[in-house]
């Protein structure tokens, strides 16, 4: 995985990418987001209900990025802008992580965290290969359709981190599951034992909280101890009327120590 010289958070990319970081995680803060939107996070801290906090975020995004104005306008371009808010990109990822929406989300990880994708429709071994250029084209197409999508995702990440702190105040990790058929999207760095591997995950990945559900997506299940600070989004944090997912968790990648469970 290529790491960039610069990012927009409080740890260097090479540190976040390492398995040592996963063993001893530290909070990741996107530069300036909490300060710029301190009013939002102060209000959220006073709201007891998870559903009400989610609605507060939705309303804040709606006003801050003028989604309500697009909704009232009748022009085709305005309707496209509305459809391509952060919710559209999350829905697009859940449908196909290698879509244009997926490229935009991988692009957020690349620009904010400093980790470049290793897979987008095809493996991306270097930043000079054709696969990386196609990813950049998809990323630019998607980002051009909406209003400050990276800024929207900055707020979303910080919101999710606050929610995880409310839900799991004494935890740093969660065990999550990913169904796979092979290692096409994941480079094996080391086989540590019969079923344990050190692998290179893509810069953004789909996991689930449900072990049994993971089997629906492959003949093997990858079991990973994921730092909460590497969770970009968890589908059950939003009301089902806004976003539906399959117990999905979107995880920032790097080097991960995983166990592989084989079906049959």
TrEMBL record:
<dbReference type="GO" id="GO:0030701">
    <property type="term" value="F:NAD+-dinitrogen-reductase ADP-D-ribosyltransferase activity"/>
</dbReference>
<keyword id="KW-0808">Transferase</keyword>
<dbReference type="Pfam" id="PF07357">
    <property type="entry name" value="DRAT"/>
</dbReference>
<keyword id="KW-0328">Glycosyltransferase</keyword>
<dbReference type="GO" id="GO:0009399">
    <property type="term" value="P:nitrogen fixation"/>
</dbReference>
<protein>
    <submittedName>
        <fullName>NAD(+)--dinitrogen-reductase ADP-D-ribosyltransferase</fullName>
        <ecNumber>2.4.2.37</ecNumber>
    </submittedName>
</protein>
<dbReference type="InterPro" id="IPR009953">
    <property type="entry name" value="DRA_trans"/>
</dbReference>
């Amino acid at each position: 995985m290529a790491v960039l010289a610069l990012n927009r958070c409080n740890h260097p990319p090479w540190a976040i990418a390492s398995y040592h970081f996963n063993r001893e995680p530290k909070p990741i803060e996107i530069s300036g987001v909490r300060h710029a939107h301190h009013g939002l996070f102060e209000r959220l801290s006073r709201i007891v209900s998870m559903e009400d906090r989610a609605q507060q975020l939705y309303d804040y995004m709606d006003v801050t990025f003028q989604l309500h104005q697009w909704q009232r306008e009748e022009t085709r371009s305005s309707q496209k802008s509305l459809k391509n808010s952060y919710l559209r990109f999350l829905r697009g990822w859940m449908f196909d992580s290698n879509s244009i929406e997926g490229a935009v989300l991988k692009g957020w990880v690349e620009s904010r965290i400093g980790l470049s994708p290793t897979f987008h429709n095809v493996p991306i071994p270097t930043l000079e290969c054709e696969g990386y250029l196609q990813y950049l084209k998809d990323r630019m197409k998607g980002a051009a359709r909406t209003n400050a999508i990276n800024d929207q995702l900055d707020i979303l990440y910080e919101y999710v981190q606050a929610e995880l702190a409310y839900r799991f105040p004494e935890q740093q990790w969660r065990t999550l599951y990913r169904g796979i058929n092979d290692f096409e999207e994941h480079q094996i760095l080391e086989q540590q034992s019969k079923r344990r591997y050190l692998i290179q995950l893509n810069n953004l990945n789909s996991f689930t909280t449900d072990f049994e559900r993971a089997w629906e997506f492959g003949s093997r299940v990858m079991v990973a101890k994921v730092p909460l600070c590497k969770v970009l989004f968890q589908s059950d944090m939003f009301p089902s009327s806004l976003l539906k997912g399959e117990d999905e968790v979107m995880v920032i990648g790097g080097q991960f120590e995983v166990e592989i469970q084989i079906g049959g």
